[in-house]
User: What shape does this take?
Amino acid sequence: MAQVIHSIPELQQWSRAAHKAGKTVGLVPTMGFLHDGHLSLIDAARANGADAVVISIFVNPIQFGPNEDFAKYPRDFERDRALCEARNVDVIFAPGVEDMYPEPLTCHVYENTISKNLCGKSRPIHFEGVTTVVSKLFNAALPDVAVFGQKDAQQAAIIRRMVRDLNFPIKIITAPIVREADGLAMSSRNKYLSEDEHRRALAISSSLFRAQKTFAAKPGIAAAKLIADIRAEITAAGGLVEYVELTDSDTMLPAATLEPGKSFTIAVAAKFGTTRLIDNIQLG
Ligand code: PAF
Assistant: This one.
């Protein structure tokens, strides 16, 4: 039976007791409305040594811009709880806004380089909200290991950098993207798509898979050609491309060319209808 904890001091107490009992604590930060992608993060925590797993479920207001979907972000705690029980999660940390932000913060955690690119251009306050809440979640759960999904590759790179720069004693795991059977990267926001939008949004994953195959067959190909083809396929499906960018896989900073022997990630954000989707694929 998963224990549900709402308060930060209670979670800290639980974590200290788990450490005292010799356990390795894993944290899976989420905003809930769990899908198989989130559940794979729980498995990744266990595979990376966690014998006690905390999943946090908190729709974090400070990472949403004023015109974004904070109010309508899907929430279903009882469904999430059942999925966590089935996965043998030890603790569900489900704080209220008043637990996380009893008063407006005057201290924030801010990454100033990686967060400026890609999603940072259209979501200027987003990553500061993420790094701030993740720091708070780290200080609440006191984990040894924390797991983030590769779908949010820029977020994962920022967290890796934050942990390195600020010396959080936490091993960060980035777990692979989990996709629907048709290729669409799993996301709680897929729920917003109509059937037709979902079908057309498959252009995102199919164009990325095609780029990966083309690169494997012709490693000398120009990055600009791969990017132009991805843009064209998404646009032809009626998607509004926000970005298609070549980045270094580790830092998620922009890369100009596909140098041999290095690993690159092509990252995409595009809108179908009013739903903004992100995805990425690794080359090399
Ligand atoms: O990826 C998410 O769901 C959120 O950005 C996170 C890491 C839980 C912080 O609110």
The longest strand covers residues 240-248. The domain at 188-279 is CATH 3.30.1300.10 (Pantoate--beta-alanine Ligase; Chain: A,domain 2). DSSP finds nine helices and nine strands in the chain.
